Amino acid sequence: MVKITKISEKSALAKTADSAEDSFDADFEPLTAEQAQAWRQHNQVVSPWKVVALQAFVGALVAVLTGLISGQFALAASAAWGALAVVLPAIVFVRALSRQMRKMQARSAMLGLFVWELVKIVLTVALLLVAPKVIANLSWFALVAGFVVTIKVYWLAMVLGWLKPKSSSIIN
Predict the structure, then answer these.
(1) How many Cα neighbours within 13 Å face the side chain of 163?
(2) What is the pLDDT of residues 97-147, one digit of tens each?
(3) 44-70 average pLDDT score
(4) Domain residue limits, the chain
(5) What's the distance, CA 58 to chain centroid?
(6) Of 70, 83, 138, 141, whose CB neighbour count within 10 A is largest?
(7) d(CA 170, CA 39)
(8) Residue 165 has what pLDDT?
(9) Which H, E and C letters describe the chain, residue by residue?
(10) Cα 44 to Cα 140: distance, rounded to the nearest angstrom
(11) pTM of this prediction?
């Protein structure tokens, strides 16, 4: 008798879930062509290459300013290597992701996203690990400063309006 009760409870839960999905589907209305066009104009796609270019510019600026202010090549090289540890993996990621997103299969595209994000992380760590071998008199402080400033360019891109948070719908 206990088994029958458990089965009936499960079936009641399944019916409740089905009715919730049905009510959700009933509220769904597809967009008209005009509404879709208005949505596309309001939510334009931002090229990730713009963000990577801004990162490269800011990283180079940090390295040059570090060199000019300190007068030490080792500090400028350390800051530049920190910026490179952000920009180079970002270039690899954006290139691979732009090729991956051409695939029509969502599961394959999602798997590619995770794989290339892992490649980006491994490449970043590898660049940071080889820094002492590449740069004589490495300054970890300057390297981390160049790294952090360059990686925070995403916030600058948002301030410039390149990356807009999704706002409420304008479709009537």
Answers:
(1) 13
(2) 888 777 667 777 788 889 999 999 999 999 999 999 999 999 999 999 999
(3) 90
(4) 47-159
(5) 18
(6) 83
(7) 7
(8) 52
(9) CHHHHHHHHHHHHHHHHHHHHHHHHHHCCCCCHHHHHHHHHHCCCCCHHHHHHHHHHHHHHHHHHHHHHHCCHHHHHHHHHHHHHHHHHHHHHHHHHHHHCCCCCHHHHHHHHHHHHHHHHHHHHHHHHHHHHHCCCCCHHHHHHHHHHHHCHHHHHHHCCCCCCCCCCCCC
(10) 39
(11) 0.69
> What separation in angstroms does the CA of 99 have from each of 15, 91, 104, 116, 154?
42, 12, 11, 11, 22
Q: Are 86 and 124 in contact (CB under 8 A)?
A: yes
CB-based contacts of 161, cutoff 8 Å, min separation 6: none
Torsion on CA atoms 52, 117, 140, 87, rounded to nearest 10: -20
